[in-house]
Amino acid sequence: MNWKLPKATAAFALLATLWMGSAQASVVITGTRVIFPGDSREVTVRLMNDGDAPALVQAWIDTGNEKEAPEKISVPFVLTPAMFRLEAGKGQSLRLIQTQESLPAGRESLFWLNVLEIPPKASAEDSANKVQLAFRSRIKVMYRPSGLAGHPEAAADQLKWTFARQADGNGYALKASNPSPYVVNLGVVDINVGGQKHELKPNFVRPGETAEFPLPAGVAAPTSAVVDYGYIDDWGTIKPTKQVTVGGAAHN
After folding, report:
1. DSSP for the chain?
2. 21-67, pLDDT tens digit by residue?
3. pTM score, two decimals?
């Protein structure tokens, strides 16, 4: 088996459209997120090829723009190996090494690990009957400086919730402000208004920032609502939901 290796930019343009497809990748990342302790020089991430064929794997770190080409991204880490062949049924460890570039010491910094799986080039006979897809997996990498105040498990309790217009002016949103130094990853965000439940798309909230969760079209910001939310811990588990009452909608 061999691979037809397109130019990096052309490959990335194709792969970016496929990574969220319904088909399943053979190369899987062990774990759902990476915590990089600030007092560590490097961490390792394990990959496994659960498929029945070898795959060419490309890995890189990004800063949040999933569409940006790998060669244009600047991050304070070195990832090695960045490209390799992974045999069927075998594993490979990636080394994520921090460079000398400094990161904020008073809060977590958020990055993403990308793993791109390129299957072997099909034979002439197979290529006439099969569509080959490349798969991209992407998980969060949270750089956690040592000595941060508080505890990541308690950060979700500190979220401040309000209703306001969306930043783009289109409709209303539930907004969560995070005063803690930790990234809060939310796995569940629901609101109950007048006995009617609305499931909102969960997201993350960076330290010191505010994230918005758009309300369904046609739903105005209520004067009072019950918000149920659950956060995702360091091991990828959605913790039991917390409940808060949010009032005083801002109609600015």
Report:
1. -------HHHHHHHHTTTTTSSS--SEEESSSEEEEETT-SEEEEEEEE-SSS-EEEEEEEESS-TTS-GGG---SEEEE-SEEEE-TT-EEEEEEEE-S----SSS-EEEEEEEEEEPPPPPHHHHTT-----EEEEEEEEEE-TT-SS-GGGGGGG-EEEEEE-TTSSSEEEEEE--SSS-EEEEEEEEEETTEEEEEPP-EE-TT-EEEEEPPTTPPPPSEEEEEEEEB-TTSPBPPPEEEEEE-----
2. 446 789 999 999 999 999 999 999 999 999 999 999 999 999 999 99
3. 0.85
Q: Structural domains in the chain?
A: 8-144 (2.60.40.10), 152-247 (2.60.40.10)
pLDDT digits (tens, 9 = 90+) for 186-220: 999 999 988 899 999 999 999 999 999 999 988 88
